[in-house]
Amino acid sequence: MKRFLAAMVLLLGITGCTAQPEGYTADFFAMDTFMSVTAYGADEQASEEIAVQCERRVNELEPALSRTREDSDIYRLNHADGAVCTVSADTYAAIEAAVQYAELTGGAFDPSLAPLTDLWGINTDDAHVPRQAEIDQVLTRVGYQNIQLLGDNQVRLLGGAQLDLGGIGKGFATDAVAALLDGSAGVLARLGGNIGAYGENPGRESGGWVIGIADPDDNADFLATVEVRGLSVVTSGDYERYFEQDGRRYHHIFDPATGYPADSGLRSVTVIDQSSTRADALTTALFVMGLDEGMAFCEENAIAAVFITADKQVYTTPQVENVCSFAFLGEEKGYAYAQ
Ligand code: ADP
Ligand code: MG
Predict the structure, then answer these.
(1) Average pLDDT over residues 120-139
(2) How far is CA 145 from the centre of its chain?
(3) How confident is the model at residue 13 (pLDDT cuts 50, 70, 90)?
(4) Phi, psi values for residue 129, rounded to 5°
(5) Given the CA of residue 194, which atom of ligand 1 is nearest to it?
(6) Ligand 1: distance of its center to the CA of 110 in Å?
(7) How many other CB atoms sit within 10 Å of the CB of residue 276?
């Protein structure tokens, strides 16, 4: 809820005081998170049509990406015991993208770790630290190499692997929203931590959209902003979903190498990219890699990313200044911009 309020505050901040065409905001809950799409079309009716169309597309994608709904393709695939399954074109495209980013990140992003998230009970009332033997056992089933894409929307999972597209789903949905737009309307889509800012923002002279990067300790407030156009801004952080046991915090981004929540010294990673799917996969992967490896990866692959570390440093990759304008706001909160 807090994150949702933060989104609203920022929206008001951007649009509150200037005369501008009527926008329309569709607020809804999907993929286990609050979402909103604000559209500025030619007139109020056009704005509403665009926003509602975007909402409809996200709702349509939800069953294509969900693994918990028993009527979903992923659920069926996860329970097929290694048999070939035919899935929808959307599901196939999402799995294909997920495998591509697993390969690119050397498995730091791994969409086959559903047995691991299930074991930890993340997002359930039964979240707990499993025994090491249990972790070792489920890790034998994790590995994106076990996902076979056979063409014609056919997929097979080997070796007991099960898919969890939670690390990429909202990015995939954001790109699906972007694909509906022709650039004539200004649209700000907030799908949880995934933001897409498309067309022109009528509330700013520059036409750009200012997106806040949350303070990990108070995600109603920001440590930095980026001004973007036609891009997606995605953040993954240890404060999004977690549970506490024996005074320790266990969050929802797992290191597939250890089977534990990634303990990389980072609080959050933000990626700014044309593809929200790529940004979503990469924020998760970079969080796992940690600062040094993550920075090197971003330089090699020309990725624009912002890292916030547990020791209160904010780092940006060289590509950031090429794609957006970045403002650091964290000084009062004891953060330093380490450039
Ligand atoms: P959020 O869902 O808060 O936007 P992320 O995009 O970082 O955050 O996705 C985290 C989700 O991705 C987890 O809840 C889990 O379902 C899945 N996940 C966790 N660790 C990994 C990983 N290393 N690779 C791929 N998916 C992951
Ligand atoms: Mg992600």
Answers:
(1) 93
(2) 23
(3) very low
(4) -80, 120
(5) 4
(6) 9
(7) 28
- Residue nearest atom 3 of ligand 1, based on CA coordinates: 240
Ligand with an atom nearest the CA of residue 123: 1
- Please give the share of the chain, as a percent, with pLDDT higher than 90: 86
Ligand showing the shortest atom-to-Cα distance for residue 110: 1
CATH number of 73-166: 1.10.3980.10
Under 8 Å between Cβ of 273 and 282: yes
Pocket of ligand 1 (CB under 6 A): 109-111, 113, 117, 122, 164, 166-167, 170, 192-193, 236, 240-241, 252-254, 256, 280, 283-284, 288
- Full-prediction pTM beyond 0.85? yes
What is the whole-number distance in angstroms between the Cα of residue 97 and the centre of ligand 1?
15
Residue 3 scores a pLDDT above 60: no
Cα separations in angstroms, 20 against 195, 200, 203, 204, 205? 22, 12, 6, 9, 11
> How remote is the CA of residue 141 from the centroid of ligand 2, in Å?
21
Closest CA to 215 of 235, 241, 192: 235
Ligand 1 geometric centre to CA of 334 (Å): 28
- Calculate how far, in angstroms, residue 202's C-alpha sits from the geometric centre of ligand 1: 34
Contacts made by residues 331-335, CB under 8 angstroms, sequence distance 24+? 333/215, 333/221, 333/223, 335/223, 335/308
pLDDT tens for residues 154-171? 999 999 999 999 999 999
Give CA angle at 99 (93, 101), nearest 5°. Answer: 105
Question: Has residue 4 got a pLDDT over 60?
Answer: no
